[in-house]
Amino acid sequence: MTQIKKKDEGVFFPSFVSDFFNSDNFFGNRFFDKDFGRNLPAVNIKEKPTEFNIDFAVPGFNKNDFKIEADNNVLTVSAESKNEKNEENEKFTRKEYSFNSFSRSFTLPQSVNESSIQANYTDGILKLVIPKKEPDKGTGKKTIKVD
């Protein structure tokens, strides 16, 4: 799915000026899109013969800030962190407040075992290990008799 952008040619500006400001490459990759302020963590996904490894770069969170859900082959990882600090001095009051959050969802392949996902958070990196299901070995060659 891609975002649809409406190109609005201004009446008061020549088309080359309008094209310049409506360009997708103005100051980089979609500089003025409404998702500009959204901070999504960087993710590395590695496939191994028996598992998938997903690493999220998410410094500044505590392990209790994360919510990880797997439902109908969709993995959703989200986090929310609030930090407040009040400091009162003789002549002023200072209040510092920050709020960080994100949510990312991934479609899992049918070959994973959703009930055995493991997560670990150390040094700003959230690591998920998603084991694959054992392949169905079957019962070998089978002869079926026709009645």
What does this structure look like?
The chain is mostly beta strands and 147 residues long. The protein is built from 1 helix and 7 strands. It has one helix spanning 15-22, and strands spanning 43-47, 51-57, 66-71, 74-88, 93-107, 118-122, 125-131. The chain has a 4-stranded antiparallel beta sheet, with no helix packed on it. Strands 3-4-5 form a 3-stranded antiparallel beta sheet, with no helix packed on it. Strand 1 (43-47) and strand 2 form a beta hairpin. The relative contact order is 0.17. Mean pLDDT is 75; it is low at 1-37.
Give the proportion of residues in helices: under 10%
Strand order in the largest sheet: 1-2-7-6
Strand elements, count: 7
By secondary-structure content and strand pairing, the structural class works out as: mainly beta
Termini separation (Å)? 53 Å
The best one-word shape is rod-shaped
Average pLDDT taken over every residue: 75
* Low-pLDDT windows of residues: 1-37
Name the beta content range. 35-45%
| Largest sheet report | 4 strands, antiparallel
Using only C-alpha atoms, the radius of gyration works out to 25 Å
What's the total helix number? 1
Order of helices and strands: HEEEEEEE
